[in-house]
Amino acid sequence: MPEGALAMPAATLAAVLLDRLLGEPRRFHPLVGFGRLAAAVEQRLNQRRLPAGLFAWALVVLPFVALAFYLRSFAPFVVDVVLLYFALGAQSLYEHAEAIAQPLQEGRLDEARQRVGWIVSRDTSALDESGVAKAGMESVLENGNDAIFGTLFWFALLGGPGALLFRLANTLDAMWGYRTERYNLFGRPAARVDDALNWLPARLTALTYALLGHTRQALTCWRTQAPGWESPNAGPVMASGAGSLGVQLGGAAIYHGEEEIRPPLGTGPAPAAADLGRAIRLIRRSLWLWLAAFFVIGFLHA
Protein backbone atom coordinates (compact mmCIF):
# COMPACT_ATOMS: atom_id res chain seq x y z
CA MET A 1 0.00 0.00 0.00
CA PRO A 2 1.23 3.55 -0.65
CA GLU A 3 3.17 5.12 2.16
CA GLY A 4 4.32 8.59 3.08
CA ALA A 5 3.26 11.64 1.11
CA LEU A 6 1.48 9.66 -1.62
CA ALA A 7 -0.74 7.68 0.76
CA MET A 8 -3.32 10.45 1.08
CA PRO A 9 -3.85 11.11 -2.66
CA ALA A 10 -3.83 7.36 -3.38
CA ALA A 11 -6.48 6.75 -0.71
CA THR A 12 -8.51 9.66 -2.10
CA LEU A 13 -8.42 8.24 -5.62
CA ALA A 14 -9.36 4.76 -4.37
CA ALA A 15 -12.36 6.12 -2.44
CA VAL A 16 -13.51 8.27 -5.36
CA LEU A 17 -13.35 5.28 -7.71
CA LEU A 18 -15.27 3.13 -5.22
CA ASP A 19 -17.92 5.83 -4.98
CA ARG A 20 -18.08 6.01 -8.78
CA LEU A 21 -18.36 2.24 -9.23
CA LEU A 22 -20.57 1.33 -6.27
CA GLY A 23 -22.42 4.53 -5.43
CA GLU A 24 -23.70 4.91 -1.92
CA PRO A 25 -24.75 1.73 -0.09
CA ARG A 26 -28.38 0.90 -0.81
CA ARG A 27 -28.80 -0.86 2.51
CA PHE A 28 -27.32 -0.13 5.92
CA HIS A 29 -25.75 3.19 4.97
CA PRO A 30 -23.79 4.42 8.02
CA LEU A 31 -25.01 8.01 7.60
CA VAL A 32 -28.63 6.83 7.54
CA GLY A 33 -28.03 4.93 10.76
CA PHE A 34 -26.35 7.98 12.23
CA GLY A 35 -29.36 10.11 11.27
CA ARG A 36 -31.69 7.75 13.10
CA LEU A 37 -29.46 7.86 16.17
CA ALA A 38 -29.35 11.67 16.04
CA ALA A 39 -33.15 11.86 15.75
CA ALA A 40 -33.58 9.60 18.79
CA VAL A 41 -31.09 11.64 20.83
CA GLU A 42 -32.79 14.89 19.84
CA GLN A 43 -36.19 13.61 20.94
CA ARG A 44 -34.83 12.75 24.37
CA LEU A 45 -32.47 15.66 25.01
CA ASN A 46 -34.02 18.64 23.23
CA GLN A 47 -34.84 21.04 26.06
CA ARG A 48 -34.64 23.99 23.63
CA ARG A 49 -31.49 25.20 25.34
CA LEU A 50 -27.96 25.75 24.08
CA PRO A 51 -26.18 23.48 26.62
CA ALA A 52 -28.46 20.56 25.73
CA GLY A 53 -27.70 21.05 22.04
CA LEU A 54 -23.96 21.19 22.64
CA PHE A 55 -24.04 18.07 24.81
CA ALA A 56 -26.16 16.19 22.23
CA TRP A 57 -23.76 17.17 19.43
CA ALA A 58 -20.75 15.91 21.37
CA LEU A 59 -22.59 12.74 22.40
CA VAL A 60 -23.41 11.62 18.87
CA VAL A 61 -20.26 12.83 17.05
CA LEU A 62 -17.16 12.55 19.24
CA PRO A 63 -17.34 8.81 20.11
CA PHE A 64 -17.44 7.87 16.42
CA VAL A 65 -14.54 10.18 15.56
CA ALA A 66 -12.50 8.82 18.49
CA LEU A 67 -13.21 5.26 17.35
CA ALA A 68 -12.12 6.17 13.81
CA PHE A 69 -8.79 7.52 15.08
CA TYR A 70 -8.29 4.36 17.14
CA LEU A 71 -8.97 2.01 14.20
CA ARG A 72 -6.78 4.10 11.92
CA SER A 73 -3.78 3.38 14.12
CA PHE A 74 -3.92 -0.29 12.99
CA ALA A 75 -4.56 0.05 9.23
CA PRO A 76 -4.43 3.72 8.19
CA PHE A 77 -4.75 3.26 4.42
CA VAL A 78 -7.67 0.82 4.56
CA VAL A 79 -9.53 2.78 7.22
CA ASP A 80 -9.01 6.02 5.30
CA VAL A 81 -10.36 4.55 2.05
CA VAL A 82 -13.40 3.00 3.75
CA LEU A 83 -14.28 6.12 5.76
CA LEU A 84 -13.86 8.44 2.78
CA TYR A 85 -15.95 6.15 0.58
CA PHE A 86 -18.80 6.25 3.09
CA ALA A 87 -18.44 10.02 3.60
CA LEU A 88 -18.32 10.98 -0.10
CA GLY A 89 -21.59 11.68 -1.86
CA ALA A 90 -20.43 12.45 -5.41
CA GLN A 91 -22.19 9.63 -7.27
CA SER A 92 -25.34 10.08 -5.21
CA LEU A 93 -25.36 13.79 -6.04
CA TYR A 94 -25.00 13.06 -9.75
CA GLU A 95 -27.85 10.54 -9.62
CA HIS A 96 -30.18 12.89 -7.74
CA ALA A 97 -29.51 15.68 -10.24
CA GLU A 98 -30.18 13.37 -13.20
CA ALA A 99 -33.40 12.17 -11.54
CA ILE A 100 -34.59 15.80 -11.54
CA ALA A 101 -33.29 16.81 -14.98
CA GLN A 102 -34.66 13.89 -16.96
CA PRO A 103 -38.38 14.20 -16.07
CA LEU A 104 -38.07 17.98 -16.29
CA GLN A 105 -36.72 17.76 -19.84
CA GLU A 106 -39.48 15.28 -20.76
CA GLY A 107 -42.27 17.49 -19.43
CA ARG A 108 -43.08 15.39 -16.36
CA LEU A 109 -43.22 18.39 -14.02
CA ASP A 110 -44.97 16.65 -11.12
CA GLU A 111 -42.29 13.96 -10.97
CA ALA A 112 -39.53 16.57 -11.19
CA ARG A 113 -41.14 18.50 -8.32
CA GLN A 114 -41.23 15.35 -6.23
CA ARG A 115 -37.61 14.49 -7.00
CA VAL A 116 -36.27 17.93 -6.17
CA GLY A 117 -38.32 17.86 -2.97
CA TRP A 118 -36.20 14.91 -1.83
CA ILE A 119 -33.02 17.02 -1.71
CA VAL A 120 -34.24 20.49 -0.65
CA SER A 121 -36.03 21.69 2.48
CA ARG A 122 -38.35 24.15 0.70
CA ASP A 123 -41.92 23.55 -0.50
CA THR A 124 -41.72 22.35 -4.12
CA SER A 125 -45.39 21.55 -4.77
CA ALA A 126 -46.12 24.72 -6.76
CA LEU A 127 -42.81 25.22 -8.57
CA ASP A 128 -42.83 25.76 -12.31
CA GLU A 129 -40.15 24.31 -14.63
CA SER A 130 -37.73 27.16 -13.96
CA GLY A 131 -38.36 26.95 -10.20
CA VAL A 132 -37.58 23.23 -10.17
CA ALA A 133 -34.37 23.77 -12.15
CA LYS A 134 -33.36 26.63 -9.86
CA ALA A 135 -33.98 24.62 -6.68
CA GLY A 136 -32.08 21.67 -8.13
CA MET A 137 -29.10 23.77 -9.18
CA GLU A 138 -28.87 25.53 -5.83
CA SER A 139 -28.86 22.18 -4.05
CA VAL A 140 -26.36 20.60 -6.46
CA LEU A 141 -23.89 23.49 -6.20
CA GLU A 142 -24.14 23.72 -2.41
CA ASN A 143 -23.93 19.97 -1.92
CA GLY A 144 -20.90 19.85 -4.17
CA ASN A 145 -19.17 21.49 -1.23
CA ASP A 146 -20.93 19.58 1.55
CA ALA A 147 -20.83 16.09 0.03
CA ILE A 148 -17.53 16.30 -1.85
CA PHE A 149 -15.08 19.15 -1.40
CA GLY A 150 -15.55 19.88 2.29
CA THR A 151 -15.18 16.17 2.92
CA LEU A 152 -11.98 16.04 0.84
CA PHE A 153 -10.56 19.08 2.63
CA TRP A 154 -10.91 17.52 6.08
CA PHE A 155 -9.72 14.19 4.74
CA ALA A 156 -6.55 15.89 3.52
CA LEU A 157 -6.00 17.37 6.99
CA LEU A 158 -6.99 14.49 9.30
CA GLY A 159 -7.47 11.43 7.12
CA GLY A 160 -10.59 9.29 7.37
CA PRO A 161 -11.53 10.58 10.85
CA GLY A 162 -11.48 14.13 9.48
CA ALA A 163 -13.86 13.20 6.65
CA LEU A 164 -16.10 11.46 9.18
CA LEU A 165 -16.09 14.48 11.51
CA PHE A 166 -17.07 16.82 8.70
CA ARG A 167 -19.89 14.65 7.37
CA LEU A 168 -21.39 13.94 10.78
CA ALA A 169 -21.29 17.64 11.66
CA ASN A 170 -22.84 18.51 8.31
CA THR A 171 -25.58 15.91 8.81
CA LEU A 172 -26.46 17.34 12.22
CA ASP A 173 -26.63 20.84 10.77
CA ALA A 174 -29.06 19.57 8.13
CA MET A 175 -31.19 17.94 10.85
CA TRP A 176 -30.97 20.45 13.70
CA GLY A 177 -29.73 23.72 12.23
CA TYR A 178 -33.09 25.46 11.75
CA ARG A 179 -34.30 28.73 13.24
CA THR A 180 -37.63 27.28 14.27
CA GLU A 181 -39.00 27.29 17.80
CA ARG A 182 -37.96 23.67 18.26
CA TYR A 183 -34.39 23.98 17.00
CA ASN A 184 -33.39 27.64 17.38
CA LEU A 185 -31.42 27.09 20.61
CA PHE A 186 -30.90 23.33 20.64
CA GLY A 187 -29.64 23.26 17.06
CA ARG A 188 -27.49 26.38 17.21
CA PRO A 189 -24.29 24.56 18.29
CA ALA A 190 -24.67 22.15 15.36
CA ALA A 191 -25.12 25.07 12.95
CA ARG A 192 -22.14 27.00 14.33
CA VAL A 193 -19.81 23.98 14.30
CA ASP A 194 -20.77 23.26 10.69
CA ASP A 195 -20.17 26.92 9.77
CA ALA A 196 -16.69 26.77 11.31
CA LEU A 197 -15.72 23.47 9.68
CA ASN A 198 -17.07 24.66 6.34
CA TRP A 199 -15.61 28.18 6.21
CA LEU A 200 -12.38 27.47 4.33
CA PRO A 201 -13.62 24.49 2.26
CA ALA A 202 -16.56 26.55 1.00
CA ARG A 203 -14.24 29.27 -0.25
CA LEU A 204 -11.94 26.75 -1.91
CA THR A 205 -14.99 25.23 -3.58
CA ALA A 206 -16.13 28.67 -4.76
CA LEU A 207 -12.65 29.35 -6.15
CA THR A 208 -12.66 26.00 -7.97
CA TYR A 209 -16.05 26.71 -9.54
CA ALA A 210 -14.77 30.10 -10.68
CA LEU A 211 -11.60 28.70 -12.24
CA LEU A 212 -13.52 26.17 -14.32
CA GLY A 213 -16.13 28.49 -15.87
CA HIS A 214 -16.64 32.22 -16.43
CA THR A 215 -13.92 33.11 -13.95
CA ARG A 216 -14.19 36.90 -13.77
CA GLN A 217 -17.97 36.80 -13.69
CA ALA A 218 -17.95 34.14 -10.95
CA LEU A 219 -15.49 36.10 -8.80
CA THR A 220 -17.55 39.27 -9.20
CA CYS A 221 -20.75 37.49 -8.17
CA TRP A 222 -18.96 35.95 -5.19
CA ARG A 223 -17.61 39.31 -4.05
CA THR A 224 -20.77 41.36 -4.52
CA GLN A 225 -23.61 38.90 -3.89
CA ALA A 226 -22.44 36.36 -1.31
CA PRO A 227 -22.36 38.86 1.62
CA GLY A 228 -26.11 39.35 1.24
CA TRP A 229 -26.86 35.63 1.57
CA GLU A 230 -27.96 34.33 4.96
CA SER A 231 -25.54 31.40 5.04
CA PRO A 232 -21.88 32.50 5.27
CA ASN A 233 -20.73 29.41 3.36
CA ALA A 234 -23.55 28.59 0.95
CA GLY A 235 -23.49 32.17 -0.36
CA PRO A 236 -19.94 32.09 -1.80
CA VAL A 237 -20.41 28.57 -3.20
CA MET A 238 -23.69 29.25 -4.97
CA ALA A 239 -22.81 32.79 -6.10
CA SER A 240 -19.55 31.59 -7.65
CA GLY A 241 -21.17 28.50 -9.17
CA ALA A 242 -24.05 30.48 -10.67
CA GLY A 243 -21.69 33.13 -12.01
CA SER A 244 -19.41 30.47 -13.46
CA LEU A 245 -22.34 28.86 -15.29
CA GLY A 246 -24.00 32.14 -16.30
CA VAL A 247 -27.38 31.62 -14.62
CA GLN A 248 -29.28 33.46 -11.90
CA LEU A 249 -30.39 31.73 -8.71
CA GLY A 250 -32.05 32.99 -5.53
CA GLY A 251 -35.39 34.78 -5.40
CA ALA A 252 -38.57 33.69 -3.66
CA ALA A 253 -38.85 30.30 -1.96
CA ILE A 254 -41.21 28.79 0.63
CA TYR A 255 -39.66 27.32 3.79
CA HIS A 256 -41.77 25.84 6.60
CA GLY A 257 -44.89 27.46 5.17
CA GLU A 258 -43.44 30.99 4.90
CA GLU A 259 -42.21 32.76 1.78
CA GLU A 260 -38.65 34.06 1.86
CA ILE A 261 -37.31 36.56 -0.66
CA ARG A 262 -33.65 35.71 -1.09
CA PRO A 263 -31.04 37.88 -2.80
CA PRO A 264 -30.11 37.01 -6.40
CA LEU A 265 -27.03 34.89 -6.99
CA GLY A 266 -25.20 34.74 -10.30
CA THR A 267 -26.13 36.55 -13.48
CA GLY A 268 -27.95 35.65 -16.66
CA PRO A 269 -31.22 33.84 -17.39
CA ALA A 270 -33.04 31.58 -14.96
CA PRO A 271 -31.79 28.00 -15.23
CA ALA A 272 -33.49 25.35 -17.35
CA ALA A 273 -33.38 21.56 -17.12
CA ALA A 274 -30.22 21.32 -19.25
CA ASP A 275 -28.37 23.57 -16.81
CA LEU A 276 -28.53 20.85 -14.16
CA GLY A 277 -26.28 18.76 -16.39
CA ARG A 278 -23.90 21.69 -16.76
CA ALA A 279 -23.74 22.02 -12.97
CA ILE A 280 -22.86 18.35 -12.59
CA ARG A 281 -20.16 18.63 -15.25
CA LEU A 282 -18.71 21.60 -13.36
CA ILE A 283 -18.60 19.55 -10.15
CA ARG A 284 -17.03 16.56 -11.91
CA ARG A 285 -14.29 18.73 -13.38
CA SER A 286 -13.78 20.30 -9.97
CA LEU A 287 -13.38 16.88 -8.38
CA TRP A 288 -10.70 15.84 -10.87
CA LEU A 289 -8.91 19.15 -10.35
CA TRP A 290 -8.82 18.52 -6.58
CA LEU A 291 -7.50 14.99 -7.16
CA ALA A 292 -4.79 16.32 -9.45
CA ALA A 293 -3.85 18.93 -6.85
CA PHE A 294 -3.62 16.26 -4.15
CA PHE A 295 -1.20 14.19 -6.27
CA VAL A 296 0.92 17.22 -7.17
CA ILE A 297 1.21 18.15 -3.50
CA GLY A 298 2.01 14.53 -2.65
CA PHE A 299 4.78 14.32 -5.27
CA LEU A 300 6.26 17.62 -4.13
CA HIS A 301 6.36 16.40 -0.52
CA ALA A 302 7.77 13.05 -1.58
From TrEMBL:
Its main location: membrane. Pathway: Cofactor biosynthesis; adenosylcobalamin biosynthesis. It is found in: Cell membrane. Keywords: Cell membrane, Cobalamin biosynthesis, Membrane, Transmembrane, Transmembrane helix. The chain crosses the membrane at residues 52-70, 147-169, 282-301. It is a multi-pass membrane protein. Converts cobyric acid to cobinamide by the addition of aminopropanol on the F carboxylic group. HAMAP family: CobD_CbiB. Belongs to the CobD/CbiB family. PANTHER family: COBALAMIN BIOSYNTHESIS PROTEIN CBIB. This is Cobalamin biosynthesis protein CobD. It comes from Dechloromonas hankyongensis. The gene is cbiB.
